[in-house]
Write a structure and sequence with these properties.
Strand order of the largest sheet: 1-4-5-6-7-8
Helix content: 10-25%
Bound molecules: zinc ion
CATH class: Alpha Beta
Order of helices and strands: EEEEEHEHEHHEEEEEHEHEEEE
Largest sheet: 6 strands, mixed
Length: 284
Amino acid sequence: MTGPGTETGPGPETRPGTATVDTLLQGYQVESTVGDIAFCGVNLIQAPDGAGGVRRIVVDTGHFGRGVVLRRALAERGLTASDIDVLVLTHTHWDHVQGLEFFDRAAVMVHPRELDYITNPHAEDFATPAWTKAVLDLYDVRHAVEGTELAAGVHVVEVPGHSPGTVAVAVDTADGVAVVTGDAIQNALVARYRRNALVFWDEEQANASVRRLVDMSDVVYPGHDQPFRVEDGNEISYLTKFSFGLRRVTPGMPGLTFDLEPGLRPRLFPAPPGWMDSPPGVSA
Ligand SMILES: [Zn+2]
């Protein structure tokens, strides 16, 4: 291995292991009796760009209602949305893509199967609004496929199943391989049981994707949970503490209820066989 200061190895600006992952917005597995809160994790990857600068990649945008806190999170780091070079959408569910318009300069990257799918989402997919394609058509979307290199030590991993074209981003950090998974791994229980919590495409593929991501990584940045490690013995070790506040609601308020369901109860809405092969209304 080539060490620092040697003349033959890659310079520090391109050496793998120098990329970082920084959570801009935490992801939460919080649901309500009056609708889906759907707070996904929004993560910033920073890696040397090979020219003495920094390449900044944001994975997933959150939904529109989180714009104020997203801008605040960027400002706390001395950044604005215009400093982001690349946006990777792990998939096209509304809660991951609706913040797209906050980023005015970033190249937008999505898996091609996801782009095909949004022309005709299946009937039970309640997370893909009919307007999704119309929104993405406003952008010059580039393809994110297996192995696409986003920066030195940062590349795309195909992890289908939750949706047809779900991708994750693997990052070679100083602390090992981190994976930013979107809903390929929604939360720590999914990693622990190797079962996806919510499937709109293919359950077998979804669970194989969970296994792949857990096996290849040291740290998981999940879709709707705090980042964690899966330790020996399959124990979950969170990197950060849970922190979530409600305003204008107090514990004693009449009608307020709490329900913490124990365990993992996957919800399955797989696509009908052949759905992508012969979409209705499209002649061969
Ligand atoms: Zn999703």
